[in-house]
Each structure stands twice: as C-alpha cells, then as structure tokens.
Amino acid sequence: MSNPDTALIDQAWPAADLEAVHTCPFCGSSARRLAYGDVQDWAFYCAPGKWNYWDCSDCQALYLDPRPTAQSIDRAYSTYYTHGQRALTRIAQVFKTALRNACYLHWFGIKLRPRLYFPAWAAPLLDRLAGRFIIPFGLQELAQMQAGSLLDLGCGSGDFLLQAQQAGWQALGIDLDNRACEVARGKGLRVINAGVEHLAELEEKFDCLFCSHILEHTYDPNRVLQLMKAVLKPGGKILLSLPNAQSVFRYHFNKDWRGLEAPRHLAIPAASSLKRQLEELGFEVQASLRHSIFTSAESFQIRRRAQSLSPQDLRLAQALSEELPVSDYSVADFVHFSCRLRA
Predict the structure, then answer these.
(1) Which has more pLDDT, 37 or 122?
(2) Could you tell me if 299 and 257 are in contact, meaning their C-beta atoms sit under 8 angstroms apart?
(3) Stretch among 78-87, 234-243, 321-330 having the lowest mean pLDDT
(4) What is the mean pLDDT of the chain?
(5) 170: number of CA atoms within 13 Å, CB side?
C-alpha cells in the first residue's frame, strides 16, 4: 500500500492564525518542558502544520503552543471522521449492526434498531459473542440509569444521540459542525448547531451530560467543565471520556501516539489530575478504563505513516497489550469518568 500524500500536512499553518499559550490550560502553571516537536496530523492527514506539545510540570497535562486560533481551527476538521454520515449500504454491515443491537438487548436490556429477533431459547447463544462487539462508552452507563433528559455535547452526526433516544431518553445534541447537525436532524434528532459556549444559554437542566472526546478539543477546558456542571440537575451525571496525557502507551509511542492528534487536541489532561479537579468541582467520580488494542494499533499505523490499519498493526498491538498490561486508570490510554453531581 502506498504512503499517504503529505503535501497538505507539510504546508505551514499561517502565522497570522496562530496564538501563543504561555500557561497550562488546565492548571495555569507556566512551568513546563517541551515534550514533542514537529508533530503533524498523521491521524487524518487533513491539517497543515508542524506542532509542539508541552508537558506541564505541575499537573502533567500536555498542551499545544502555539496553537491555531479559534477562528481558524475549523480547517483542521475538513475530513474529520466524527462529522460524516455512516451509511449502512452493505447487507453485511446492516446484519452486523442488527446482531450487535440484539446483543445489547440481551446483555443490557437496551432496545436499539435495527435489531435481529431471537426466540427466548436462543438468546443465551448471544453470550458466546461477548468480546466480539466493543461496548460504546456511555451505553452501558445509560442502561443502569433511569431514563430522563440527556445532553450530548459534541454529538457529531448523532450516533450516540440516536441510541440514547431509542433507549427512552429525551435527548438534545450540540455540535459546531453544520454538516454534522444536518445529518443528525435527518435522523429525526433534536440538535443545536453551536459551540460549547452555548451551554451558558441553556435554561434546560439535564439528568445526564454525555461528553466523549470533546474536552481535549476546547480552548478553555476549565470554563467548559464549569458550564457542564451548570446545566446538570442536582444528582445529575457527566459521562466523560478523553485521552490521558500520562498513558503508558504515550511514552511507548512518543510523538506517534494516537492520543496527540495535532492540532485538534489542544490540551490533554493527566487522568489523575482531572479526577481531582472534578472532585473539587463537587462531583463524586468513578474512573474506569476499557482497554482496547485498536488505539495501540492506530499508533502503530501512525508510526508507519499509513492511512489504514494492517493485520501486522493489530498483531503488534496485541503483543504490546501483553507486554504493558494496564490495570490502573491513571496510566490507561483513554479514560472514562462517571461523575455524579452532589445534591
């Protein structure tokens, strides 16, 4: 397979569209050291520029300096994966989705469509498929909660929003990308085309706020966390997922780590520091990890400077997971937080 075209990412980001970041976006400290220089968009090959990531000496976060201005960052999302419509055009894919949803009904009692229907006597056969389907973050958590009102911050084209709605939640999505919002609305979903700052304008209070891989894309993560808290009802929950700056796999792959994703990931917190910050905001926090070899496989793909995974990437990722077993969220690649706001 030929190497990807690097003509776009080898271009410079216009100097007029850059801004300096003198302090850590998470803790405000100016103490730092250069972690990685000249990182490029080796994940999607759609954002020009070479980028520097800095290690905060106090909270151990990673952050870009300089970074794209808020007015120019949209060019880094021109072909970003979360904003496309995933059309189920092949019979095999439709069947796989329907089988997966049948498993979710059997395992968690969540009714999603399309779905295969099994007689009661055959349902236990689905247990044999455990481990074949990756359980999406948030889906199992919703199954354990009483359905109420849910806000999906950064809903993209609405995949999770649709699942929540089918599971009985009154769901609202927010996304900055107009194209993604159009796709979501085409699915019959309620979506607001706006950025995270729109949280300040919401009068509605929510039982659950879902935020998957959004915080690391924001310019003022502390402000965003405050806004997220403000839209919750007492006792409400935030389901939060994001990469971990102190991942053991980050130190294995260094600038080829999948969690960097320059320049879209503006600031990546250390999981243990973020947990303390959430607790100080008034949340009871449960941190968990669900290790998947696919993120490591993507790092191996990046190391090869390729645009698609190979069987060898998966084999190497499996071997690495055995070499570097992870049982503590503080060094996991990606972390999930379930945060309940104290009443």
Answers:
(1) 37
(2) yes
(3) 78-87
(4) 89
(5) 6
How does pLDDT run across 16-37, given as a tens digit for each residue? Answer: 999 999 999 999 999 999 999 9
Give the residue among 4, 17, 137, 144 at the shortest CA–CA distance from 69. 17
- Give the burial class of 264: count Cβ atoms within 10 A of its Cβ; 0-12 exposed, 13-18 middle, 19 or more buried: buried
Residue 186: C-alpha distances to residues 5, 80, 164, 180, 189 (Å) = 33, 19, 16, 10, 7
Burial (0-12, 13-18, 19+ Cβ within 10 Å), 216: buried
CB-based contact 273:225 (threshold 8 Å): no
Q: For the whole model, what pTM was predicted?
A: 0.87
CB burial of 326-343 (b: ≥16 within 10 Å; e: otherwise) equals eeebbbbbbbbbbbbbee
CA distances from 314 to 3, 88, 196, 235 (A): 19, 25, 35, 41
More confident of the two residues 221 and 118:
221
Q: Extract the tokens encoding 188.
A: 């019959």
Question: Could you tell me the two tokens for 20?
Answer: 């300096």
Q: Is the pLDDT of residue 88 over 50?
A: no
User: Residue 227's CB: how many other CB atoms inside 10 A?
Assistant: 19
Structure tokens of 108? 């968690």
Over the chain, what HEC string results? CCCCCCCCCCCCCCHHHEECCCCCCCCCCCCEEEEEEEECCCCCCCCCCCEEEEEECCCCCEEECCEECCCCHHHHHCCCHHHCCCCCCCHHHHHHHHHHHHHHHHHHCCCCCCCCCCCCCCHHHHHHHCCCCCCCCCHHHHHCCCCCEEEEECCCCCHHHHHHHHCCCEEEEEECCHHHHHHHHHCCCCEEECCHHHHHHCCCCEEEEEEECCHHHCCCHHHHHHHHHHCEEEEEEEEEEEECCCCHHHHHHHHHCCCCCCCCCCEECCHHHHHHHHHHCCEEEEEECCCCHHHHHHHHHHHCCCCCCCHHHHHHHHHHHHHCCCCCHHHCCEEEEEEEECC
More confident of the two residues 99 and 314:
314
